[in-house]
Amino acid sequence: MKQRCFWVTDSELYKKYHDCEWGTPVYDDETLFEFLILETFQAGLSWITILNKRENFRKAFDNFDYKKIATYSESKYESLLLDAGIIRNKLKIRSAITNAKLFMEIQKEFGSFSKFIWGYVNEKPILNKFKKRADVPATTDLSDKISKDLKKRGFKFVGSTVVYAYMQAVGMVNDHTTDCFRYPK
């Protein structure tokens, strides 16, 4: 039996996410935006809730196409509020539209969102050596810094905890515990 990180439940969806995605470095803007949307909707909820609704989010938000999302009309916003397949939080839905616009502003400024976000770690994942649950932080000085920068640019639902979870998800930090089969040997 594979040894996984402490947070992985018996859910096959969770196992697959952990084994194939979480902590794997992501450099393409499309996937970076998808995780940004998912992490902002996750704020205050469990990640498994988001994973269970991920395909619904994909359909509702045009396959996470930030160019389309940035142009959503008021009627599209209203239809999202009625979509039982996603998290129907007015502020989070509104923030997805706002964040899509700001995401593209960062692309203009830096050439890509990837260059911007990965610049914080010199384009290389930070390899942590956490042994147990208590070792893994919810925030770091770096997530505080990135959060402040994103908020200053107008992004919503990007507190330090959300940003650190994002950094973990897209592999900017490798927080697989040292006993996990995914921890690099």
Automatic annotation (TrEMBL):
Keywords in alphabetical order: DNA damage, DNA repair, Hydrolase, Metal-binding, Zinc
Function recorded in the entry: Hydrolysis of the deoxyribose N-glycosidic bond to excise 3-methyladenine from the damaged DNA polymer formed by alkylation lesions.
UniProt-listed Enzyme Commission number(s): 3.2.2.20
SUPFAM superfamilies the record matches: DNA-glycosylase
Entry's Gene Ontology molecular function annotations: DNA-3-methyladenine glycosylase activity; metal ion binding
Protein name per UniProt: DNA-3-methyladenine glycosylase I
Highest taxon listed in the record's lineage: Bacteria
UniProt: Zn(2+) binding residues: C5, H18, H176, C180
Enzyme class: hydrolase
Gene Ontology biological process terms, A to Z: base-excision repair
UniProt catalytic activity: Hydrolysis of alkylated DNA, releasing 3-methyladenine
Coiled coil start-end: none
Pfam families: Adenine_glyco (PF03352)
